[in-house]
Amino acid sequence: MKLKGVILGTIALALGTVGFGITQSASATVIHGVTVGYFRATKTFKINIYGTNQKVTIPKNTVVQAEANYIPVTNQAGQTVQVQSGDINFLNLNYKLRRTWPKAHAGGTASFSATAKVHLKPIAAPVYMPVQTAIGSRETGSVLTRKMTQTWGKDPWFTITTDGYVAHFAALKKWNSRTQPKPNSSAKITKTKWTGRTEKVYYRHHVKGVPDKRVAKRGRAQYRLKLVRQKKLSSHGKGTSLVQYTHFKVGGKNYYTIYNMPN
Fold first, then answer.
1. CB of 201 within 8 A of CB of 225?
2. CA 164, 168, 169, 171: dihedral to nearest 10 degrees?
3. Which residues, other chains included, contact 178 with Cβ-Cβ below 8 Å and sequence gap of 6+?
4. What is the mean predicted confidence (pLDDT) over 47-53?
5. What's the whole-model pTM score?
6. Where are the beta strands (DSSP E) in the chain?
7. CA-to-CA distance for 168 and 184, rounded, in angstroms?
8. C or N: which end of the chain has fewer Cβ atoms within 10 Å?
């Protein structure tokens, strides 16, 4: 299956050497030898845009989704040591952080990190993230679409960012993996409630394109967005091309976020 226009990872990711300093904890999950989860920046650092030598800044205390693993590397003394490698997902960072970043040079993508030494500490999933368990990839829960195969050139989508915003993105006129899309509407989450598989997030004003509902006339929680995670996964493709998605009902409509990609 060829999903060229899919936002969430049709590109094969070459994991660069990254000093994450990760320790195994309840907040991180190891899947096929790769540690997946949420992390907080312990200091402000710079990291390359994936596939380029262009650097962008990740401020201290920024929460990101990432994946990492350990690979054997021979050092100058001829010794084999374990070096941590991995990638940060830029796609679900708030646009207020990304708007000052440069556009990636040809061959790069502003959706993922590149080789750099970084300073990240694993943390529990923020309460507002729709998928609380890291279960398949660093993109899990970051982008919700009406279709299981999301094409930027045709389809709108929305995300709950790792720093707590609901952001909606209108359909783009053409596909461009080097574009950092600007949301057409967004709002800061002010309150989150969970009941079983149902999540309700609240914010001050309507997010255009998102099926939220006005529940108060004033205050910081005037609008509510309700997400109901379905029990069963949905799938697209067959065999080694099978991709699974977590299925949500949002405003009574079907939405999907990637669960895992083929091994």
1. yes
2. 150
3. 103, 104, 105, 106, 108, 109, 110
4. 83
5. 0.78
6. 16-17, 28-31, 34-41, 45-50, 55-58, 63-74, 80-88, 109-113, 120-123, 144-145, 157-160, 165-169, 185-195, 198-203, 213-214, 223-229, 234-236, 243-250, 253-260
7. 6
8. C
